[in-house]
């Protein structure tokens, strides 16, 4: 049994159906008045799409929220003179990471009715006033998720308060680090392939020991737990590896267990034969481990795609097995 399994017992509860009902009841009916006439307003009529997963975990007496959802809403509006409009609002990512990193919620809006002057005015009210109202609802979700399900995980109110106090007392260990991308783009390396001078970086604090996180990242029997695909991997210098069904490949360059791993790294969309260099660093904290991934040698123009891939397949993959936010 790994050191983590011995000392960091945890259990989770799936809360996705409850979350869909919660978002439906708290979002549908939200409205912004257009005048003193009670019928003149823009409002949310229906939740038309909900995709994603919501879980609450209890690890070592501390609560962990893991959720990532895409929510689509139908809206309508009417002015005092009876002019109407309708459309959609989509939030492609409502996630615990928005709250952890104090990130704005991205949204997409669409006007489906005829684009009259009154309709366009209502559309602007949707974007500038109704959407911020909905974001306030999202800010309250985590608290109600915990209040509704913590006891099912054997977590009483006293323990919950203690866990929150502990996390607040050590913010450097518990607060995930926002992902960043460097700004410079100019260099040319690797033959004729133009590459970015920037390093693509993503990082997060995970609720796991350094030794066990190292094992999750390098043990071919455990990698599928978070990658959701078979893995070919051996943490030995010169060994080739293949992850995510062959979508990532390369070879091991340097190993300093359990803190640092350097690999050549490529995806099939990159120019043939071109590899970047991925450096993985693990830093043990008080009750979490900081995972930092630094990818250099990315082909010019592929920086955003590379960052999204690291965040989605590595960071979120690991969080999906219960290594998410400590409260």
TrEMBL record:
Belongs to the AHA1 family. Residues 162-179 have a biased composition (Low complexity). The gene is AHA1. Residues 12-151 form the Activator of Hsp90 ATPase AHSA1-like N-terminal domain. GO terms for biological process: protein folding. SUPFAM superfamilies: Activator of Hsp90 ATPase, Aha1 (SSF103111), Bet v1-like (SSF55961). One of its GO terms (cellular component) is cytosol. The lineage of its organism: Eukaryota, Fungi, Dikarya, Basidiomycota, Ustilaginomycotina. Signal peptide: none annotated. This is Co-chaperone. Residues 153-192 are annotated as: Disordered. One of its GO terms (molecular function) is ATPase activator activity.
